[in-house]
Amino acid sequence: MTDKIEKTATSEPTEASAERGELSPQEKKTLSKMFWRSHTVFCGFNMTKMEANGFTITMSPAIEEIYKDDPEGKRDAYKRHQAFFNTHAVAFNFIAGLCYAFERDVAAGRMPKESVNAIKASLMGPTAGMFDSLFFNCLRVIGAGVAMGLCAQGNALGVLLFILIYGVTQSVCKKVLLDVGYRLGASFVDKVFQSGLMKLATTAASILGLVMVGSMTSTTVSVPLTWTIGTSAETSVAVLDLLNAIYPGILSVAVVLLMMWLIKKKQVRPTLLILCVLGAGLLGAALGIF
């Protein structure tokens, strides 16, 4: 699939591969409609096509504009965008912008219609990994850390800051990337696949996400173990101090890794894990372990 995209992108320069300059009023109007509709990304989400319904809703203003006098082309376009699709909600807009540009080229006969789904299938995996790491594992963790600190003090500003840091930021990025995707059009494919930028950006975002998750674990996950071994105050040894001497924060890391393993491998629901942690905490407190 990627080879097909690369061949399309590295063909002789055409109008399809040129970046767009100043947008027309109609293009701006269509992009604005697509932006607002892109917030329905999970509308009709299902395990068969995942975000296909949300993507079709987002693309509908572009399809109606481009194929308004071509009923058959309009039908094919709607059917085309009902194919399986899944990526991060922000990257979703960038790919939608690209597809808007591609649909123009398809309608003008400058590009085969198969290229539209080819670029979607080629980009949705790498962009999902990159944007999940950036927004879900990094920005969300930062926003939650700030918000929880304020909410723990009874400050309602924590909720608003989380919405601003995590929610509003995503919405702004969705608008910017939708416009960027449309302006770049097919030239994006040529630049990214030839330069290796996609692989580099995905790796960098993954590393950043892991760093942020590690930081979140060390600062917010605490196992207040008070268990001591010994018969008297002079000879007793605190188990937590002994473990931290081996590896600082080892219990916090162990708890996080255990939860991840149970969710990913054993398919245990997070709600059940929360109840188990609560029960273990109450039992440990009653026994004097915590």
TrEMBL record:
The keyword Transmembrane applies. Residues 1-26 are annotated as: Disordered. It comes from the Bacteria. The chain crosses the membrane at residues 83-103, 141-168, 200-225, 245-263, 270-289. Keywords: Membrane, Transmembrane, Transmembrane helix. Residues 17-26 have a biased composition (Basic and acidic residues). InterPro entries: GatZ_KbaZ_carbometab, PTS_IID_man. PANTHER family: N-ACETYLGALACTOSAMINE PERMEASE II COMPONENT-RELATED (PTHR32502), TRANSPORT PROTEIN, PTS SYSTEM (PTHR32502:SF23). This is PTS system mannose/fructose/sorbose family transporter subunit IID. It comes from Paratractidigestivibacter faecalis.
